[in-house]
Amino acid sequence: MLILFGLFILWGFGWETIGRRLQTHVDGVIVARRDVPSTGSPRYATEYTVRDPHGDEQVFWAGATDASLPRSMPVGTRIRKLQWHLDYERNGNRVEFPEKFFYAPILACAVGMVIWGCLVLRSEPK
Fold it and tell me: For residue 123, what pLDDT band results from cuts at 50, 70 and 90?
């Protein structure tokens, strides 16, 4: 049971949050934005259209979790989020991922639970 709980925490806090944030890559200027269902709803998301320096456009979504970038950034905002980085740049200013001090101990505890569960399982008589 301890192993399953630790794996669940690793999936939820690690893969679904930190992992998704690390995979996000966007670089350009926001040229369009649409809030779904609408701004101010408790769990709304924002669809951004971003034009990169070469003129290509990319669509990305920002949701209500720490895995995504902020919602409702104005059109004209210069955004640069590199893959494998938690922080990003907004109009040339670096924005840190402040929740890293929350996620690091949680993930460490989850790894500890998995290891502890494996050790307990291994030490049980056959």
Answer: confident
Tens-digit pLDDT profile for residues 52-111: 999 999 999 998 888 889 988 999 999 999 999 999 999 999 998 877 778 888 899 999
Structural domain harbouring 110 = 2-123
CA-to-CA distance for 63 and 71, rounded, in angstroms?
Answer: 7
Give the Cα separation of 30 and 116 in Å (integer): 47
| Interatomic CA distance for residues 41 and 30, integer angstroms | 22
Q: Structure pTM?
A: 0.76
Task: Say how many domains are in the chain.
Answer: 1
Rounded Cα distance between 91 and 74, Å, is 11
Where helices occur in the chain by DSSP H, the ranges are 2-9, 20-23, 100-123
Cβ neighbours of residue 11 under 8 Å, at least 6 residues apart?
A: none
